[in-house]
Amino acid sequence: xxxxxxxxxxxxxxxxxxxxxxxxxxxxxxxxxxxxxxxxxxxxxxxxxxxxxxxxxxxxxxxxxxxxxxxxxxxxxxxxxxxxxxxxxxxxxxxxxxxxxxxxxxxxxxxxxxxxxxxxxxxxxxxxxxxxxxxxxxxxxxxxxxxxxxxxxxxxxxxxxxxxxxxxxxxxxxxxxxxxxxxxxxxxxxxxxxxxxxxxxxxxxxxxxxxxxxxxxxxxxxxxxxxxxxxxxxxxxxxxxxxxxxxxxxxxxxxxxxxxxxxxxxxxxxxxxxxxxxxxxxxxxxxxxxxxxxxxxxxxxxxxxxxxxxxxxxxxxxxxxxxxxxxxxxxxxxxxxxxxxxxxxxxxxxxxxxxxxxxxxxxxxxxxxxxxxxxxxxxxxxxxxxxxxxxxxxxxxxxxxxxxxxxxxxxxxxxxxxxxxxxxxxxxxxxxxxxxxxxxxxxxxxxxxxxxxxxxxxxxxxxxxxxxxxxxxxxxxxxxxxxxxxxxxxxxxxxxxxxxxxxxxxxxxxxxxxxxxxxxxxxxxxxxxxxxxxxxxxx
Length: 539
Hints:
Elements: E1 43-44, H1 46-49, H2 65-72, H3 76-85, H4 118-128, H5 135-144, H6 152-159, H7 165-172, H8 183-191, H9 197-231, H10 242-257, E2 268-269, E3 297-300, E4 307-310, H11 319-330, H12 337-340, H13 342-345, H14 352-374, H15 384-425, H16 436-489, H17 497-502, H18 509-537
Helix pairs in contact: 6-9, 7-8, 9-14, 9-15, 11-16, 14-15, 15-16, 16-18
């Protein structure tokens, strides 16, 4: 059979939405109207963006590209001039010199006549002087793990004065008169019959400190979960998608600045570039003689009208400044996005590796406690009078602590899994389960971006407030000066025809007096404006 002719041709299948250029997926080629400052970012192509927030992200259409090109576009003439005056600078090299000197190791004279090294004896003496419990009562408290005596503070002091295995062996080998031993040797000799005394006290100390450590770790896990929840781009109880909407505007800006280069046409970008926005400045400092200077204006609110003022000559707008302006003017619902992501502020600077170590430490403490009950101080190899009191004191705590830890472990596992999954959704590189550096990088990128934005926003608002105050002061000064001039003009002195006739005469005393009166009225007007502003401000 014959194939279909032109009239019967099968129409081409339309591209799916994700493949349409200019909205989502593959980005169109952009040709900036002038050469732009580059934005060096980790570019994500369409394939790399699949399964992330970038895959179906629509470009906002109201980003002020003309202003972007004006501020961050280069000027060939200025660029040529700058090349002539900018020299090739060098970075100072060399490293820091370590002048700490050497340290001298203390030698423990285990075979000395005094049995224990003098320096060690001095340190232990200081420690046991704070214990102030008779030896027989202290030994009984350790064997029975008496919580009334062995408080957390007391146990901490006690553990700092425990003998080492070598010191125990030394005092146990002494076959002389015990009464001739010093206080430290007698103290060590009192502890010697108690099996695994250090492990006993460590298990007891773990029970005493578990609740506080567990609550602290649980609190930090909750903060991490809340922060990651605020970043979740999927619908939920948190402000979903707000960061994604802000990033979409950064993407448009970056793609325009990188238009025509290998960095352009990005479907997404790695978030570490967000920390660079405050450092990417306009191509040239603002110049009073620039023909297009009026485009770089910020308006200050005035009671009567909006009074424009220009950035100071020599200053440079950064990409972060541009983003602040863009959100305030074109996407006001996003202008305070950093305030809507408050849970992230609470984990700024949190050491996730330390949190992981703290969670693991609680698990390790439970395992050591269980092992001590079964094979250590509570094991069958110990004498019954030493073994049974320890088991009676410690065994009831083991089940309670294990149950609490299981709850914490579940929270920690869920927080880490959710954090890694969220980081992947934003296109961050994750090596595998438990990749804590990836989570830390992800959170740091976002929190640093929020803080940089907050500072830029506050700086702009302060600038606008200062301009508003200056405009009000100037307006009041004009009003007072005008009123003073009007009153002066109505005075018999100023109405004098002879004064008007001789006003231009520099040598005429009446003319000089008239000009002095006007100057005085101008000064009075300015002073009156300042006083009125102070009364308005309550100062």
